[in-house]
From TrEMBL:
Organism: Nesidiocoris tenuis
Keywords: Electron transport, Membrane, Mitochondrion, Mitochondrion inner membrane, Respiratory chain, Transport
GO biological process: mitochondrial electron transport, ubiquinol to cytochrome c
Protein name as annotated: Cytochrome b-c1 complex subunit 7
Highest taxon above the source species: Eukaryota
Length: 131
């Protein structure tokens, strides 16, 4: 049975026998998070279909209620992006690179509505539990 290596210390990461100094404070700074987040965003692949992050949310009851509150133009834009992505997926194609959704342009347009719905639901549940 192979021997497991000991857990690396908090300030040193052992990567294939090379010790790399690791400073968690610098990793947690917003400046260092952005390149990593951008890499993860691009690696996820949904932007190649022109989709935005909020287009991919699982439709829970809160999300469904938030979608009902979304302005009509945003709802139409969302529907267009989803239908276009499904068409591209069925044809095993992606958009030209200049049409990909860029990390900087991906706005969480649905999140404020979801937050509002959750607050209302939690308030309603609290009120019902007290009465």
């Amino acid at each position: 049975m192979p021997q497991l290596s000991p857990k690396p210390s908090a300030d040193i990461i052992n990567y294939k026998s090379k010790k790399i100094p690791f400073n968690s404070a610098s990793f947690n700074s917003s400046k260092s998070k952005t390149p990593f987040r951008k890499w993860v965003y691009n690696a996820s692949g949904f932007n190649k279909y022109g989709l935005m992050h909020d287009d991919l949310l699982y439709e829970t009851p809160d999300v469904k209620q938030a979608l009902k509150r979304l302005p009509e133009d945003l709802l139409h834009q969302r529907s267009f992006r989803i239908v276009r992505a499904m068409q591209l997926s069925m044809t095993h194609d992606i958009l030209p690179k200049e049409q990909w959704t860029k990390f900087e342009e991906d706005v969480k347009y649905l999140q404020p509505y979801i937050d509002e719905v959750r607050r209302e639901r939690e308030e309603r549940e609290e009120w019902e539990s007290n009465n």
